[in-house]
Design brief:
alpha/beta; binds nicotinamide-adenine-dinucleotide; 6-stranded mixed beta sheet; 16 helices; 2 domains
Length: about 475
């Protein structure tokens, strides 16, 4: 049984209240460890440590800050196996996914923003009789709160730019998947990160998370998670005039046209609906297919999904592992029941899967494909965030666009067509922060990342993140 600690001022410390929460391994459904049930006192300690480390951290020579962040990146890769095993044990995702996606991307996040800080610059505006320049100064202490689906990947996606911009950080990973963030503390110490620059506090959202949001000295909140928690955070932080970046839920459409590159589309669509058990905010859960292609797509897609292997996340032969928690398992099964009540026909999946021991108490769900639903029903409007996709035919481009834009969410959309005009038209008119054409999850870290509507406010990635984590000050000289 592993007991993990908070990482405050460069040290692993227990929560002040001495209270812990059970941590579960979703693949076996059993308790695997204990994590701190931290509260405002631990956050206070973390803020004190972070405040003491600022502004010394931001005053380090750029090369020095760069080197430390690069060392963290290298340290993550040196610990690839241990981190991938921990990520899988905490989240139920396959070790293959953790080894090839989560952990390499976490290392890349630090590497990318380490180099970004060397190139980050600000504007100057010259006019007859005046010269204005913009100082982009770090905010001070900032809060980073992340979810369970891509634990270290999304935690580092926030922390790396925050540190690169010269801030000190109080971070809270999801209480459901705390292990890799805990391991990151030792990697940061080995990388030479000064004590207090990064502090990681574990615990529940409404307790430890909310204490971060409410703390007067925390100047900005970068949050990724549910729309529900995002709106709660905004309610608290907005009257305090904190900067906020909120990356929230999604209900992403895939628009598939008969003129697409069929095999590439089919391969990618299976991945884009079921990778990581469908628990990626960018997964396509509503698949709209042009009527002439629909029968062929339905047959091939269902066959491919039936062939996906679910089970022991350590077995490289398996495509899907367990979903992240008992609560989420029950939620997803409830959504499948709702789809049936709404008149949906289950083409494959539709139920939990019973595994042999020692995985017999794990939380496994068969990849599920549903047809026969209207785009306006709850199944097609509400986020499920599991291995469930619906398929539906459309006649005209305008109908596909209307169905795609019909939800309250707007994170990403995927379009499959070889018609350039159509692709540009849809890209312009889809209500989403990211539109992929003939691909999915292809991420250039320099591009803006974020959602519209209930999928959030603000953008991460590249200069957007560096700007978010700095305050612009205009300085004007007269002639
Ligand atoms: P969640 O909102 O329950 O929790 C996310 C984090 O916020 C956790 O660390 C949690 O402890 C904390 N939290 C919860 N309530 C809080 C509060 N009142 N104050 C402060 N912190 C609080 O989300 P989750 O279940 O961990 O993650 C799944 C959700 O995240 C899905 O909706 C998914 O779409 C979304 N997500 C979005 C993106 C994106 O980039 N837009 C990426 C990944 C996941």
């Amino acid at each position: 049984m592993q007991v993990i600690h908070n990482y405050i001022n460069g040290k692993n410390v227990p929560p002040k209240n001495g209270q812990y929460i059970d941590n579960f391994n979703p693949s076996t459904g059993t308790v695997s460890g204990k994590i701190p049930d931290s509260d405002s006192e631990d956050i206070e300690d973390a803020v004190r440590a972070a405040s003491a480390a600022f502004p010394a951290w931001s005053n380090l020579p750029l090369e020095h800050r760069h080197d430390i962040l690069r060392n963290i990146s290298d340290g993550i890769l040196q610990n690839l196996d241990a981190l991938a095993a921990a990520e899988s044990a905490d989240s139920g995702k396959t070790v293959t996914t953790a080894r090839t996606v989560d952990i390499p991307r976490s290392a890349l996040n630090f590497k990318f923003f380490a180099t970004a800080l060397l190139h980050f610059s600000s504007e100057s505006h010259h006019a007859p009789g005046s010269l204005s320049y913009t100082l982009r100064q770090p905010l001070g202490v900032v809060g980073c709160i992340s979810p369970w689906n891509l634990p270290l990947y999304l935690f580092s996606w926030k922390i790396a730019p925050a540190l690169a911009a010269g801030n000190c950080v109080v971070g809270k990973p999801s209480e459901v998947t705390p292990l890799t963030a805990y391991l990151l503390g030792d990697i940061c110490n080995a990388a030479g990160l000064p004590p207090g620059v990064l502090n990681i506090v574990h615990g529940l959202g409404p307790r430890a998370g909310e204490a971060i949001v409410r703390h007067q000295k925390i100047k900005a909140i970068s949050f990724t998670g549910s729309t529900r928690a995002g709106s709660e955070i905004a309610r608290i932080a907005a009257p305090m005039f904190k900067k906020m970046s909120l990356e929230l839920g999604g209900k992403n459409p895939n628009l598939i046209f008969a003129d697409c590159d069929y095999e590439k589309m089919l391969d990618t669509t299976v991945r884009s609906s079921f990778n990581n058990q469908g628990q990626i905010c960018l997964c396509g859960s509503r698949i709209y297919v042009e009527k002439s292609l629909y029968p062929r797509f339905k047959k091939d897609f269902v066959e491919r999904v039936k062939n996906l292997k679910v089970g022991n996340p350590n077995d490289p032969a398996n495509n899907l592992g367990a979903v992240v928690s008992k609560m989420h398992f029950e939620k997803v099964l409830g959504c499948i029941d709702l789809a049936k009540q709404e008149g949906g026909q289950i083409l494959t999946g539709g139920s939990a899967l019973q595994m042999p021991a020692p995985f017999d108490k794990g939380w496994y769900i068969a990849p599920t494909v549903i047809e026969g639903l209207s785009h306006e029903c709850r199944t097609n409007q509400e986020e499920i965030f599991g291995p469930v996709a619906t398929i539906q035919a459309f006649d005209a481009d305008s109908e596909a666009l209307e169905m795609a834009n019909s939800t309250p969410y707007g994170l990403s959309a995927t379009v499959w067509t070889n018609n350039l005009q159509r692709a540009h038209y849809l890209a312009e008119n889809l209500q989403a922060g990211i539109v992929w054409v003939n691909t999915w999850m292809l991420r250039d870290l320099r591009t803006p990342f974020g959602g519209v509507k209930n999928s959030g406010v603000g953008r991460e990635g590249g200069w957007e993140a560096m700007r978010f984590f700095t305050e612009a000050k205009n300085v004007t000289f007269g002639g």
